[in-house]
Every structure is written in structure tokens, then in C-alpha cells.
Amino acid sequence: MAVTLPYAFDTGSVSKLILKGICVLAGVVVIPGMIKFLVIAPNPVAAFGIACIGGMLIHFGYVVVKQLCGATGTITKQELLIKPNKFLGMASKEPEGRFALDQFYGLLVKRIAFAGNRYSPHERVLLMGKENTPNILIARTRGGAGITLGRELAALLNFPIEERIAPY
After folding, report:
1. For a surface tag, which of 70, 91, 100, 133 has the fewest beta carbons within 10 Å of its beta carbon?
2. Average pLDDT over residues 98-118
């Protein structure tokens, strides 16, 4: 896998998958449940329970959007252009805009560890920001691909690279 510039990335797949699951669950449980317990066989207690489930799903979806990382962007030799992912009008916590590459000092590859010394099969690759510049997640990878990606991208950008074990 040879990395070239410009390098385009999209790190929102995990968040989008969770949010799609929430929408499916709402479509299968909450909407039919509300129709049944409000229209077909009125039962205010059951309708209230289903409404509570719907409220919890909405809250969980909001937390997922606001807490999980996810953005699309492009890295060139001079700059990083980034846009947070959006789902149903809500944007993720990632920054938006253009950042000159001199605002970053290197790349970090986090190998995700479970309890003990076991590793999960994935890594996170981050562009590390200098003072007042956020760290940007640029890839979620599996099976050591993040280490290769990080090394190749660091060489292209003339950045140092750090590999670290991080807790799940």
C-alpha cells in the first residue's frame, strides 16, 4: 500500500454504523410500538415506556455524534483540510477548516490494547498538533496497517512518528 499526497481520509465509519443501528432500532421498535400503544391498542403505560426507550436512543445517538471522532479531510504537502462528519444535522466534535502543516509536529500510531498485554486488531493514526492546534484522527486501521500507513505518511510529510500502546 503506497501512500501518496494528497491523502484523503474519512474516519467516521464507526460512528455512522452505530448511528445507523440506532435509526434501525428506532424504526423497528419505537415507531411501531408507539403506533400500537397509542392507536391500535391504547395503553398509556406501554406508550410511555416506548417513549422512554425512544428518548434513550436519541440521547445515545447524540452522545455518539458528540463524543466519537469522525471527519473527512485531505492532507497535502502544505495543509490539512478537514470537515467534521454530520449525521441528521449533528456534527462530530472534530474541528473544521484549513490547517497549515507547520501547525503539526508529527504522527502518532496508537495500537489499541485490551486488558493485560493483549492487543486488539486495530490502530488509530493521528496527526499531532502543536500548541493550540488539535490532534486529528486521520485513520482507523487493522492488523498493523496503521503502522505502515503512519511510517509512509510521516516520510512523505517529513514528520517524526511515534508508536504507542493505548488503552481501549
Report:
1. 100
2. 85
The candidate with the shortest Cα–Cα distance to 123, out of 106, 142, 102, 104, is 142
Cell of 130: 502543536
Judge if 61 and 75 occupy the same domain. Answer: no
Query: What string of DSSP letters covers 114-136?
Result: -STT-EEEEEEEEEEE-TT---E
Q: Is the same domain home to 46 and 89?
A: no
State the CATH number of the domain containing residue 116: 2.30.29.30
Looking at every residue in the chain, the average pLDDT score rounds to 89
Count CB atoms within 10 A of the CB of residue 77.
10
Q: Cell triple for residue 23? A: 435509526
Could you report the per-residue pLDDT of 74-98, keeping only the tens digit for each?
Answer: 999 999 999 998 877 777 888 999 9
User: pTM for the full model?
Assistant: 0.79
Query: Does residue 136 belong to any structural domain of this protein?
Result: yes
Which three cell numbers mark 156? 512523505
Residues of the domain holding 43 = 15-66
Helix (H) or strand (E) holding 14: helix 13-25
